[in-house]
Amino acid sequence: RLTALLRIAKQEARFEFRRRGERQSDDRSNRLFDGFDAEDEAEQYFEPVFVRIGAEEGELTSGFPATSEELFQYDAVVVDDLECEFFTPDQQALLQKYVNRRGGSLLMLGGQESFAEGGYDRTPIGDMLPVYLNVERDAAEMKSPFRLSLSKEGWLEPWARLRQNEVDERSRLEALRAYRSLNRTSRPKPGAIELAYVEDQAGQRTPALVSQAFGRGRCVALLVGDAWRNALTPEITQRDDAFKAWRQAVRFLVANVPRRVDIESQMSLDASTGRFDLRITARDDAYEPLDNAQIELTVLGPDGSESTLPTSPSDEQAGVYVSSFVAPEAGTYRAHAVVRDGAGDETGQADALWHFDPDAAEFARTAPDERWLEEIARRTGGEMFALEDLDDLAASLPRRKAPISEKFAYPLWHRTSLFVLALTLLCCEWGWRRYRGLP
Fold first, then answer.
1. Cβ(291)–Cβ(281) under 8 Å?
2. Angle ∠(222,193,72) on CA atoms, nearest 5
3. CA–CA separation, 92 vs 103, rounded Å?
4. pLDDT at 22
5. pLDDT at 190
6. How many other CB atoms sit within 10 Å of the CB of residue 89?
7. Same-domain status, 145 and 277
């Protein structure tokens, strides 16, 4: 569900130099609400005026969220042409916590009051952005129009492309309208990925679309300020492409956002056994690890049978609960987890699906499973060698203790060579004694 908070009027100063027409001096409600009911609840002149789109009753009634409980329920936040002073210092710190600790996504769009022009430099929000907001003094001035192109990394991101092949995608980019509004930056930050850039007629380039991981979440910067032009073109194809681009961008923002309850299934090292390890991650309202949680974990088999599994807290990480399940037969299995806090209130649900096919497990991968081979060697007291270490293995075999040894007894007198040697020595001794005159 998409929820929008649209500011249609900025706040004004609390003081006024003259009376506003025939309005009473104590009437400070905004004229945009004249003629409507509930004048006491209307925004005043020193308050910004918002329009809520797609919001439920009681949602975002006081503007941008000011508490973590209200903000953390969203998966992504898009800031479009909004100055930094709109956010209070607490809201700026809260938004940084939202991305860093909660794992949400932040997308800032270009505009007259975005990035450096909006005063975001050296602020908690500016610290999250994937680009440096200050522009180098000796940087040459770029003049519009600007042409958009994908970088090497952008070609590898499916959500940044709208066509199936490179030729069609280049044709689409060439057919786009030239952009005329741009928020310039010096360069992307270390670790950031430049997905697209713009180029002016003189051949100068600057980042246009940059993404970077920040804590558990992600920040994306679209530095073009008039990307909306593509949605207003009379050509139907370009309008559809603009809508598709926004859908893909939103999916990218919310795809890997952590939920309050997550469940993962992982096949054991020996795929033929059918054992799957289940890992449930539980978080509270502030998206901190939830201890002492009550987990109801059920697995639905391919035949419709339902099994209830016990869970235990993980010894390695707080808020994580583990369990295991052995598939009795081939088919598709579904795990359903219901998490409740210490008071018994439900905090969330999660599902996981996996398919077990023992016949195909052996051929699921053609590469050697080094992890499984090392586990076999560890359990049997052996050692695994790489292909390039075979020469060292052959040289060390005489010094190695064999894991299996067998005793073998054979009388030495039954060996002809030893009997001939003993007889020869006896004859030599007799001849030496006769030569010396000894008895």
1. no
2. 65
3. 16
4. 47
5. 93
6. 9
7. no
- Find all residues with CB under 8 Å of 136, minimum gap 6, and list them: 186
Sign of CA dihedral 80, 83, 84, 88: negative
Cα 246–Cα 249–Cα 252 angle in degrees, nearest 5? 155
pLDDT of res. 161: 93
Do 59 and 51 meet the contact criterion of CB atoms below 8 Å apart? no
Bridge partners (DSSP) of residue 307 are 299
Range of the domain at 125: 64-254
Q: What is the pTM of this model?
A: 0.70
CATH number at residue 345: 2.60.40.10
* 186 within 8 A of 135, measured Cβ to Cβ: yes
Please check whether residues 152 and 246 belong to one and the same domain: yes
Q: DSSP states of 56-120 as a string?
A: PTTTTTTSS--SHHHHTT-SEEEEES--GGGS-HHHHHHHHHIIIII--EEEEE-STTSGGGGT-
Residues of the chain with pLDDT under 50: 17, 19, 22-27, 39, 42
**Is the same domain home to 273 and 247?**
no
> Where are the strands (E) in 316-410, listed by range?
320-326, 331-340, 346-356
How far, in Å, are 92, 128, 254, 318 from residue 288 at the CA level?
A: 20, 21, 19, 9
Q: What is the pLDDT of residue 24?
A: 46
Q: What is the largest CA-CA distance in the chain?
A: 155
The separation between the first and the last C-alpha atoms of the chain, rounded to the nearest angstrom, is 117
Spatial contact of 295 and 311, defined as CB atoms under 8 Å apart: yes
Instruction: From 341, 361, 381, give the residue that closes a domain.
Output: 361
CA distance 98 to 73: 10
**Do residues 243 and 326 both lie within one domain?**
no
Q: Is the dihedral of CA 186, 191, 192, 198 positive or negative?
A: positive
Assess whether 205 and 82 both reside in one domain. Answer: yes
What is the number of alpha carbons within 13 Å of residue 8 lying toward its C-beta?
A: 11
Q: Which residue, among 180, 195, 185, has the nearest Cα to 230 in the 3D structure?
A: 180
User: Do 356 and 229 sit in the same domain of this protein?
Assistant: no
Distance of alpha carbon 179 from alpha carbon 230, whole angstroms: 9
Question: 208 and 332, same structural domain?
Answer: no
The whole-angstrom distance between residue 156's C-alpha and the CA centroid of its chain comes to 16
